[in-house]
Amino acid sequence: MPRNPALRGLRWAGAVLVVAAFAGCGTAMAADGTPVWSSAPPPRVSSSPVPAHSPTHSPAHSPAPSPTHSPAHSPAKNPSPKSSPSKTPPARPRAGSGPAQSLMKTGSSAVALTFDDGPDPVQTPKLLDLLAARHVKATFCLVGQNVAAHPDLVRRIAAEGHTLCNHSWRHSLTLGKEKPAAIRADLQRTNDAIRAAAPGAEIKYLRAPGGNFTPNFVKVAAELGMRSIYWQVDPRDWDHPAGESDAAHQVKVRTAIKQHISKGAIVLSHDYQQPDTIAVYRSLLPWLQQRYRLIALP
Questions:
Q1: CATH homologous superfamily of domain 108-298?
Q2: Which of 36, 155, 223, 242 is deepest in the core (most CB within 10 A)?
Q3: ∠ CA 286-281-234 to the nearest 5 degrees?
C-alpha cells in the first residue's frame, strides 16, 4: 500500500520542531551576515517608561542603567522661589534593532562575546580557564535549571568578573507567548537561583530562548531591571549536522565569526555541551584581540 505523502510530511515537520526545541539559541543569517528572525519587521515596544510593578518576590538588584542619551528635558521658566525643583523624567531603556527592540550591538566599538545555556559542568570550566588565560571578560546567559544543578560554577563566573544574563528557567522557546505573570514568574525563579548561588550578583540582562522576544518579554525583563539582548553574529555553533566532522564544524563556526563580526557586535555562542565551541575560541581569541576590544556587557 503506498505511503500517504501528506502524513509523511506532517511527521517530518513534527520531528524538526522537536529537534529545534533543544538545538540552541541560534537563528539563520542572511547573505550579508545580518540575523534573520522573521520576514516581517520586529514588533515595536512602546517608548513610554515602563510602569512601576512589584514582582511577587522583590529582586535584590540595581536599577537598569540609564541610556546613553537622556530624554530631552527643559526646566520650567522663571520658577518661583518657593517652587520645588523640577524632577528629571524616568530614564527610558535604550531601544535596539533586534526583535521587540532587543539589543543587537554593544553601543560602543567594543565586541561582546556571549555564551548561552550553561553552566555546563565540563565545558564551562574549560571556557573560564581559557578566558582567564587571555584576560577576557564575557557574558554568560544562564538557564535556571543548570544554575540550580551547578551553583559553584555560577559563583566562579561571577567571581571572575563576567556579566550574568538570565536565559529563563528551562529554555522554553514559547515562553514569550505566555501571559506576563507567567513570564515574570519564570524569570524571577531564574534570578532567585542565580542569586542563591552567587549572593549579591547583578543580573542586568535577559536573553529569550531561541531569541524569541516578544513585547511582553522585553517589558517584563525591564520591570525586573534587565535589558533584553539579541545578537548580531550567530555562527550556529549549536548546529552540528550528522556526518559533519568536529574539524569541519570548527572551521565553519570560526569562519562565520570572522566573516560577520564588526565593531560593536554582540556575538552568540554556547558553552553548554559544545566542546567544539571551546576549541574554536582557543584559536579565535588571539585573532579577535588583535582587532577588537572584547568586553563583558556593562
A1: Glycoside hydrolase/deacetylase (3.20.20.370)
A2: 223
A3: 115
Q: 500517504: which residue's cell?
A: 4
> What's the CA gap between 194 and 153, in Å, rounded?
10
Angstrom CA distances, 37 to 14, 27, 162, 232, stand at 20, 7, 28, 11
- For residue 279 the three cell numbers come to 576549541
Cβ atoms 96, 67 nearer than 8 A: no
Eight-class DSSP state of 141: E
Neighbours of 1 (CB within 10 A): 3
> Over the stretch 181-202, which tens digit does the pLDDT of each residue have?
999 999 999 999 999 999 999 9
Query: What per-residue confidence (pLDDT) applies to 25?
Result: 64
The number of residues in the chain equals 298
24 pLDDT tier (thresholds 50, 70, 90) = low
CA–CA distance, 63 with 60 (Å, rounded to integer): 10
| Residue 59: Cβ-neighbour burial (10 angstroms; 0-12, 13-18, 19+) | middle
102: Cβ–Cβ under 8 A, 6 or more apart, which residues? 96, 208, 211, 213, 218, 228, 229, 230
Active site residues: 116, 270
